[in-house]
Amino acid sequence: MARQFHLYNSLSRETETVEPLHDGHLQFYSCGPTVYSYAHIGNFRSFLTADLIFRTAKSIGWEVTYATNITDVGHLTDDDLTGTTGEDRMVQALQSKEGERFANIWDLARYYTLVLQEDWRSLNLLEPTVRPRASEHMREQIKAIEQLLKSGHAYETSNTIYFSVPSFPAYGRLSGNEAAEDLEQGVRDVVHDPEKQDPRDFALWKKDDSHLMQWHSPWGWGFPGWHLECSVMAQTYLGDEIDIHAGGEDLIFPHHECEIAQTECLTGKTFARKWVHTRFLQVEGKKMSKSAGNFYTVRDLVLPESEGGRGIDPLAVRMTLLSGHYRKPFNFTFETLKTNVRHRQRFDDVVALAESGLENGENGQNELSGSLTALFERTLSAMLDDLNTPEALAATFEATKLVLKHEHLSKDSAASVIRWLDNTNDLLGIVYPHAPLKTESGDESFAAEVDALVAARTQAREADDFTRADELRDELTSLGVEVMDTPDGPKWKRRSTLS
Ligand SMILES: [Zn+2]
Fold first, then answer.
1. Assigned fold of 20-278
2. Separation of CA 29 and ligand 1 centre (Å)
3. Separation of 337 CA from ligand 1 center, angstroms?
4. CA of residue 75 to ligand 1 center, whole Å
5. DSSP-assigned beta bridge partners for residue 70
6. What is the Å distance from ligand 1's center to 31 Cα?
7. Pseudo-torsion of CA 154, 160, 166, 169, nearest 10°?
8. What pairs with residue 67 in β-bridges?
9. Cα(471) to centroid(ligand 1), Å
10. For residue 33, how far is its CA from the centre of ligand 1 (angstroms)?
């Protein structure tokens, strides 16, 4: 019998069976980061939910097209309120102290995109099928705005193209934010544009010929509003209707509400059949903030101490994030992290025991096959039940305990253990470091990143900026890439992981 996958849908406010529109092929979109800084563990908690949807769907034999974006333009500091005012987060980052080391805004975007992908790999998130960038989908965004203007869902003022919220009566269905007054309350400190027709209207395009990132459009130079990119990229890569759309709970309003409005006015169809939202994360019982001193990026935890980190096993960080259910507020503590470092160690012990059993074990009885199959079944059932990660992990801990009762394993038992480890790793990503299931497109985007970095290094060298060139080489090294300067220009290859 085919397995059923249940997820809580924030739109219907009910747990439902996932039934892909195309039989056995899930079309799935998850909002990615704005690359103006290092991603923190709260960001990654939500990326991890998407990774688990991806892995769980694959584990029951579905094909999955999974798109998650990179926001590298247009995300304003006030976008979480109105989407019409505020400073561009990327520009603000460039003008900050940390921004001083970047030549320009493109350099900054490139750097934080690379770092994001590095953190992504270190926490063992699988490469998505496609990772589109907002800045590379300008033509599609402009076309969408033209279409919305034509169909009366948008209007132009002297400095902005707005989406007209009253033209889409279903606005507010996801978040329950139906009343414009509620919104007004939230944004009363923000300067209003007198030409705006309804306070809920949000920007599709900002006319601004002094902005650091600008494109030519039928309305002059400017840049798109933040919400538009996800509508357009989901449609480009997944089609008019998608099965699941995911993101952090902070994105429900206004971001996802605006995405629904735009897409449904463009296509006349239901945009996403299910919406999955990850609750926020606290650290040591408090809201994570730089001023409270409890703000952690992934690298704060996983980089070696010599590089300013705490040298924690990235997979222990991953396990800690999995130890709370995605729909409950999660309290990240160093106590839980410590416990998970120990759990992680036990997986390494199991791997070592199984490898030695395969090599030196006797031929003989297989004592573990039945129990491990049953425990894996418990893990998978838990994941299919709205990603119940605490229960899924508990079953794996029982399995490691069971295996480690043995001092030696027979060849057959060892083979069963390896099979269990592989299945557990495919589903939860907690056994072996680095994603083993990289898709080809992931490799392509990796190659594109490396090419861009190599080109930037060549440029820096030509400009005699050797400090920058060295920094870029270090970045390449940390990605596991070796650059060789040849008479035909620089060539690169991946360093062997065996050396
Ligand atoms: Zn989005």
1. Rossmann fold (3.40.50)
2. 9
3. 30
4. 10
5. 133
6. 4
7. 70
8. 29, 130
9. 32
10. 9
Length of the chain: 499
The phi, psi pair for 365, rounded to 5°, reads -60, 145
* Of the candidates 342, 341, 347, 348, the residue with the CA atom closest to the CA atom of residue 313: 341
Contact in structure between 175 and 252 (CB atoms under 8 Å): yes
Split at pLDDT 50, 70, 90, the class of 7 is: very high
Determine the distance separating the centroid of ligand 1 and the alpha carbon of 384, expressed in angstroms.
25
For residue 199, the surrounding DSSP H or E stretch is none
Give the residue carrying structure tokens 């060549």. Answer: 458
Distance 42 CA to ligand 1 centre (A): 16
Residue 246 pLDDT: 98
Question: How far does the centroid of ligand 1 lie from the alpha carbon of residue 441, in Å?
Answer: 21
Q: Tens digit of pLDDT for each residue in 419-475?
A: 999 999 999 999 998 743 333 445 667 778 888 888 888 888 888 888 888 888 888
- AA identity, residue 163: F
Give yes or no for residue 342 having a pLDDT over 80.
yes
CA 167–ligand 1 middle distance (angstroms): 21
| Interval 66-117: pLDDT, tens | 999 999 886 776 655 544 456 788 888 888 888 888 888 889 999 999 999 9
Query: Hey, what CATH topology would domain 286-428 get?
Result: Isoleucyl-tRNA Synthetase; Domain 1 (1.10.730)
How far is ligand 1, taken at its centre, from the CA of residue 44, in Å?
A: 15
Tell me the CA–centroid distance for residue 238 and ligand 1, in Å: 14
What are the residue boundaries of the structural domains of the chain, listed by start?
A: 20-278, 286-428, 440-494
